[in-house]
Amino acid sequence: MTTRLLALEDVKQAYKPKSSTFGARRTGTVRAVDGVTLDVTAGETVGLVGESGCGKSSLAKLIVGLEQPVSGRVLWKGRDVAGMSRAEKSAFHRGVQLIFQDPFASLNPRRTIRESIAEGILTHKSLPRQRVHDRVDELMADVGLDPAHADKYPHECSGGQLQRVGIARALALGPDLLVCDEPVSALDISVRAQVLNLLNGLRQKHGLTIVFIAHDLDVVQHMSDRIVTMYLGKIVEEGPCDAVYGTSAHPYTRALLSAVPKRLPPGHRIDRVVLEGDPPSPIDPPPGCPFHTRCYTAVPDCASTVPALTEIGAGHRAACLRADDVRSSQVGLPYRAS
Ligand SMILES: Nc1ncnc2c1ncn2[C@@H]1O[C@H](COP(=O)(O)OP(=O)(O)OP(=O)(O)O)[C@@H](O)[C@H]1O
């Protein structure tokens, strides 16, 4: 039986625009998350992808309860987070943990690694000193950190070691769900795979559910059961990993796929899509399909019709008027050249 751990129902988040480079006040509202509906089932890993500014981190903050949505509901184990009692909220905050992109910025520079990991435990539990000490040792072993690092300060550790500390802190309270917000994008290429393997191993060992955020499809491919593509605050495609990588039906996902460097088998080629320019401003999104201004396959209707996220296969949905054509095309996917 599958258990729905987390559900987002038509969730929206809006911000006042930050002032421009020259300090001028901007008007309007930034629609960072614009009507997202998403279920996360216990034990699965959901890869959430999209370019910078599409709303991934805003969604992460809503999921972990760091921010409240302006409308819509966040449900944790079937309960609306907004209506939870104090005790329920405390259990929710223990059950959902965030792993940040920049581990250095998320740690107190004046605390040793041991103190930083212990802080995560002591925030929610009061335990005898020896128990906390033992639990920190256990967590350090779990994330493959040498005990010799326990008395070091963050500036004495490498990026990869600090991200392991961030993961240990997140695991300290035995969470059900880890939200990993670009956990390897600030790391050297050489240590990325180690951290991804670690997360994969921990997921199996502890039966974790993971929402894994990345700006490209390369990083999430080997981690995820399901892929969700976001554009301008909206989900434009979601589906099982194989369906999205093999027969994606949204031109934006095709563009992201074609940007993934691949070693092609002999005789194969890819018709790549190059995304021109930046996404439009979320203060003033275009009418119709949000992607039509950059789409390689848009038709006139796309400028006026907002495409609904529509089921096109088992668990596979896409918000595109041309989903069937995109799905049956080869754009962005390797194929044997004739
Ligand atoms: N606190 C805030 N105040 C004003 N605007 C914000 C705030 N947080 C995010 N935004 C804006 O909301 C939009 C979505 O930002 P968000 O950080 O969620 O995107 P993202 O996909 O995570 O991007 P990145 O990968 O660069 O972090 C962007 O236009 C961003 O500038």
TrEMBL record:
Highest taxon of the lineage: Bacteria
Spans through the membrane: none
Keywords, in A-Z order: ATP-binding, Nucleotide-binding, Transport
Domain ABC transporter: 6-257
GO MF annotations, alphabetized: ATP binding
InterPro entries given in the database record: AAA+_ATPase, ABC_transp_ATP-bind, ABC_transporter-like_ATP-bd, ABC_transporter-like_CS, Oligopep_ABC_C, P-loop_NTPase
Annotated Gene3D superfamilies: P-loop containing nucleotide triphosphate hydrolases (3.40.50.300)
CDD domains linked: ABC_NikE_OppD_transporters (cd03257)
Family statement: Belongs to the ABC transporter superfamily.
Name this polypeptide is given: ATP-binding cassette domain-containing protein
